Amino acid sequence: MRRRVGPDQQAVPWPLGVPAAVAVLFLLVPLLGLVVRAPWRGLHRIVVESQVVDALRLSLLCASAATLISLVLGVPLAWVLARARLRGIGLLRALVTLPLVLPPVVGGVALLLAFGRVGLVGQYLHGWFGITLPFTTPGVIVAETFVAMPFLVVTVEGAFRAADRGYEEAAATLGASRMTVFRRVTLPLIGPSLVAGSVLCWARALGEFGATITFAGNFPGRTQTVPIAVYLALEQDPEAAIALSLVLLAVSVAVLVGLRDRWFSVGGAP
Amino acid sequence: MHRTTRIVAVLALTTSVLAGCGGSSGGSRATKPTSSLSPSADKLAGTVNVFAAASLQEAFKALGKQFQAAHPRTKLVFNFGPSSGLATQISQGAPADVFASASAKNMDSVVKARAATDATPFVKNVLEIAVPPANPGRITALDDLARSGVKVAVCQAQVPCGAVAAKVFRNAKITVRPATQEVDVKAVLAKVKLGEVDAGLVYVTDVLGAGAKVTGIPIPADVNASTSYPIATLTKAPNKAVAQAFTDYVLSAEGSAVLTAAGFQKP
Lengths: 270, 267
Prior knowledge:
- The structure holds 2 protein chains of 2 kinds.
- Chain A is mainly α.
- Chain A has 13 helices and no strands.
- Chain A has helices at residues 14-36, 43-48, 50-83, 89-96, 104-115, 122-129, 137-162, 165-173, 178-189, 191-206, 210-215, 226-236, 238-263.
- In chain A, helix 3 (50-83) packs parallel to helix 7, helix 3 (50-83) packs across helix 10 and helix 8 packs antiparallel against helix 9.
- The longest helix of chain A has 34 residues, at 50-83.
- Mean pLDDT of chain A is 86; it is low at 266-270.
- Chain B has 10 helices and 9 strands.
- The model of chain B is unreliable at 7-40 (pLDDT under 50).
């Protein structure tokens, strides 16, 4: 997409302006509904109630753990996808980023069949080490990592591709080993993308619902994250659901504010 | 080259998604003209939306088939789920014609929201322990569920099967620490079928409906608890005639026979 930026910005023709205004309303009115219907007076009471705090603590813990795992495993994967000269790398990229487009519930079912107690891998985890992942907090982390890691991988992979190879070659000529080049030159070069990818991954993990409730079930304090608590609370205590939603909305706004320099610069160039 | 195939694929996907979206709403919109335009011996025509407790799934599908065979111009669309969730949807204005709840409590909330005026109890149901056929937890009685290390799935407390399960545990004076509280009874049953839990507390009817995929372990009558299922035609039912006819059919002797065969008890 080419776009002219500068003093010659045009007036908006109405065939574009009207649908654009509808789109803005469509995207913002639901959020407005949340804010307007919020039980502001009882908010403190609801948020202080233990279940909300438990769910929030669990959500933050699991999303952070999932991001950490995604960094440890995903950054090397991104490097391989961007730099390795292997046959079938395109297919590999398509396969590992599949969770990006896969409905999360499907991911949850797939995780059960793989890491469940009688699953492909899970039966050995259970038989040899006595580890079962479903219905446990580590199970939540596994589900969130599965869904969120591809967001980090695609962001960081793009950065690896775009990074100027000249610096790496210079470092190598000066005698740095390949790992030293990676650690001291490549990683700092892609720093901003690493941060953006991590935040994106973290936000996705925080909002994860489908894979989590399918794979890890629902138990307050152990596997009940905020999105699950919101969904279940809506049936019994809609005010609590609204309050919980506001908490997540606030977190999301904070994420956007954190990323504003990357995404809201005119022209979209990072 | 690649771009064209990709565009074609995206288009195909979009159209199929759009078709999927249109299908559900189109069905209910098509109802009105048929009923007024072509009167015949069987005046019942059109689509009704039946919101029913998850545990009624098999029995209501069978009832629906028979009802539609008797009235070929009608179409029943079922929405099975947790009674509490369905009650919320109805109170929020979901286009439902009939509501069959697995407990009086959830029906009461619908009545309170003025979405129904009177409800009739039509069956009763009791709980049973469902275990995977291999019985990995070596469960033989209710007390085994309280053992540490036994993974038990129950319904969440706000759905009828969760409330009944809590009552059963109270009656038996045991403390069960469930591994998970599932959204509805079918979700509990699924976790048992998959072998992910050692036992699940489900209705007698669910064990019967699951066939050989799970094994049932009865709960002694003196500690077991039951829940009563009320059914009501909703006040804002878009197709009241067919809705009432289906409700009547569920309450009829013929309907009751199907429900009894599925393991439900008389109210």
